[in-house]
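Researcher: We're reviewing a set of sequences before deciding which ones to prioritize for further study. For each one, I'd like a predicted 3D structure that I can look through quickly. This is N-(5'-phosphoribosyl)anthranilate isomerase. If possible, include the structure in token form so it fits the rest of the review sheet.
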Amino acid sequence: MLLKVCGATSRRDVAVLGAAGADLIGLWHGVPGGPAELSAGRLAALAQACRTLEVTAARPAPEPVLVTFLPDPAAVLDAARAAGVRWLQLHGYQPPAVVAALKRGWPEVTVVKVLHISGDACAERPLLASYERAGTDVFLFDAVSEAGRVGSTGVTLDPGVVLDLAEATTQPFLLAGGISAANRPRYEKVTAHPRFVGVDVDTAARDAAGAFCADRIGGIRRQWRAVPEVEEVA
Ligand SMILES: O=C(O)c1ccccc1N[C@@H]1O[C@H](COP(=O)(O)O)[C@@H](O)[C@H]1O
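Model: Here's the predicted structure for N-(5'-phosphoribosyl)anthranilate isomerase, in token form for your review sheet.
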């Protein structure tokens, strides 16, 4: 189970997230007006900080993930190549053609396409097969707020809606949307899905002042990585 935490803006953030057990660290580039937006130079510096972080022997250093709303695949690839970032998270409403262009331009990248879910409706539902044909490696299910806000909504998804969408796709998926240590039991069936690969968190990874909190992140990791108890059959 992978734990991704989103929105690092400093080497200290990277160190806190790595020590707390994040496998993937989201770095924003091309999120206009976003509080964690990074210039291309800062993106490269923090991606390097992720890769060179000293973690325990049992765990590899966290993988940097470029999180972007950019609609231009050339701009995404330029930033990713310059920073050496091989995981690309398309968090906007980029169409399947953008995924295809990224995979053509750099076949080794892992493309994570966000599917935006509001209630029981997924905006990308009619395009799922197109996104898969275009080369999407991993889908990320995230909630859109009632006001239409995208990313870091703290809004949870209905597990039934998640499972239904999982069945409409064939690729691995990450779960986002208000994920916390406390709500893991609600998603028991989701975590048991054979293509569930992990969770992506922002709001619950932070303290009241908005700073990343190692205790909270550690708690999320412990709860979501725990193997559910299996009833013994007599
Ligand atoms: O973290 C953000 O603010 C953000 C901004 C723009 C694009 C993506 C963003 N993060 C994504 O938000 C969800 C998690 O949010 P939460 O736990 O519900 O607060 C996750 O997909 C992040 O990648």
